[in-house]
Amino acid sequence: MSKLFPKSANKLPLQIVIYVGVLAGIATAGVTYYMTPKYTRVGYAPVQPVPFSHAQHVQEVGLDCRYCHSNVDKSGHSNVPAAQTCMNCHGTIKPNSPALAVVRESFEKNTPVPWVWIHKTPDFAFFNHAIHVNRGISCVECHGPVNQMETVTHMQPLSMAFCLDCHRDPAPRLRAPGDVYNLDSRTLADQGRADEAQNYIHDWKLMPPQSCSGCHR
Amino acid sequence: MRNVYLITAFVCVAVVSLLGLRGTRFTAPPLDVFPEWAFPSMEFQPRPKPQGASRFFADGQADRRPVQHTVARGMLRDDDHLFLGRDSAGEFARGFPAAITVDPEFLQHGRERYAIYCAPCHSEVGDGNGITKRYGMGATPSYHDERLRTMPEGEIYNTITNGKNTMMPYADKLAPAERWAVVAYVRALQRAQMGKPADVTDAAARQTLGLP
Q: Is residue B187 included in any domain, yes or no?
């Protein structure tokens, strides 16, 4: 009987407890690393039906974001442009480029271009573009340097923690109203104009919601 | 026990090499950690979204056009001068509609909109040498010839609203009042090109320009 459990078995319960602790630690680390939007979303760059390059159109041609996303400063939804917007130029510029075949087809048939939607908030959270961009929050804060992208890539987690980080203290991330669409510009705080940012907060009466009903309405 | 730890370490290495690090680029749709079928939530609500898809309407789009011969509240467009740029006789109207006051703020707004929507082709000064000319948009005219300078305001408004030949309409991007702001700024550009030394009245400005 005495040989059934070796002496070392006495230590087993303790070892199991330690191991379970280690395992729980690993699992927690894995979940926080892999199951949050910082991992699941950041880096998402779907293949679009048209190889449209923001870098070319914004930096080379010098278009303003609002030429295409024309509702971003007027409504909650920032529209992706219809085919006609592209045809304004591409009726004449590169009218036969094979890269633009999908755009021409949808312009003729009056159907939408099947762009893949990249940034999405769940339906239980409310988001509004106009209220942010008209108050000195630049696209780059939430979308990253789109003006340098060949393919649009999801750069920020857009999770609740991300939204709240700014809502608790928007001052260091404000830009002058004229700089909002210039994604290479620096924030007022970075330019050493932090007091100006404080003035905007005061004059505009900025009070980003931190209570649940502000965003979950 | 050592083996157990070795196996655990191996599993960790395997998981990390399979899932990769944060911020790597990928093209497959993002993983939903709490998928709808397992954790029913309010993440996807059956409401139409702007520019969204719809399985209900035959054309597959959630965006609807107003039903023909109907007018939404507050959308009645009964002022021909304001909305069509035409006077009571149906001709292109001269001058600005009564509903609009042209003041510096209005012009400033027009300037901003002009820079976004018109300058790529017509250039900042309106001479038709915008950046797109370099890429083959050859036909963009200058605002500074006699025909365009004497053109009624209503006709410029109409060009913005309905386009003209190779220029497509900008009605989807500019609301009627904004179009009038752009018209006002086009007029300002035209006036600026016709400026004469006698127009400068400010003494300090005359000095910088070297005028007597």
A: yes
